Each structure stands twice: as C-alpha cells, then as structure tokens.
C-alpha cells in the first residue's frame, strides 16, 4: 500500500475531536519540543495530567486539520524527530486556536 494511503488512513478518524483546551496547551508546548515525537507526547500527557494518549490524539488531529504539517509521502512515525513536523500559524488563526 502506498505511504500516502497509509498516512491518510492513520489520520482519517482524527479530524473532529472535542479537546479545545488541550489543543491550546499542546500548541503552546510544541515550540519547546525536541527529539522523539512520542517522548514529547507522553511528556505532554504527564505535565498536564491528561489521560494517556491525549497527546497522540491531538497530534493526529492537528495533522488531519493541516495545522501541523509533514511530508505526506514519508510515513508518519511517532519515533521520528519533532523537527520533521512544522505548524502553520495562519492555519492556527484560521481555526480560531490562537
């Protein structure tokens, strides 16, 4: 199966979630992250005392909404480096998250 299809399947159920407060916290923290994505997502959950997996859910949601961006032709890898992901500040404003 092509990488693009796998990535889209990974994100398809993440477009709509009800975690507005957590999304704001996540975006606030994103610029401070370095190293492995998963390590940072787990740290986010612990720091804010969120349910295990909340950071991953928000990460997938923000990718699905194109707020966080990556090369869709490369597999989305939670063990990859945070630097492979960027965010679109215009999209953040457009979505009303700023």
UniProtKB/TrEMBL annotation:
Enumerate the UniProt keywords alphabetically. Answer: Endonuclease, Hydrolase, Nuclease
User: Where, by residue number, does the polypeptide cross the bilayer?
Assistant: none
Please tell me whether the keyword GTP-binding is annotated for this protein. no
Residue span(s) of domain TnsA endonuclease C-terminal: 3-72
Q: Does the keyword Nuclease apply?
A: yes
GO MF, one annotated term: endonuclease activity
The record, for InterPro entries, names:
TnsA_C (IPR014832), WH-like_DNA-bd_sf (IPR036388)
User: Can you say what this protein is called?
Assistant: TnsA endonuclease C-terminal domain-containing protein
The organism encoding this protein is: Paenibacillus septentrionalis
């Amino acid at each position: 199966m092509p990488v693009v299809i796998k990535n889209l399947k990974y994100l398809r159920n993440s477009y709509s979630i009800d975690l507005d407060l957590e999304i704001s916290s996540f975006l606030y923290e994103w610029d401070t992250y370095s190293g492995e994505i998963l390590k940072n997502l787990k740290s986010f959950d612990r720091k804010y005392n969120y349910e295990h997996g909340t950071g991953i859910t928000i990460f997938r949601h923000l990718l699905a909404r194109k707020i966080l961006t990556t090369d869709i032709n490369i597999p989305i890898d939670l063990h990859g480096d945070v630097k492979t992901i960027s965010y679109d500040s215009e999209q953040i404003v457009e979505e009303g998250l700023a």
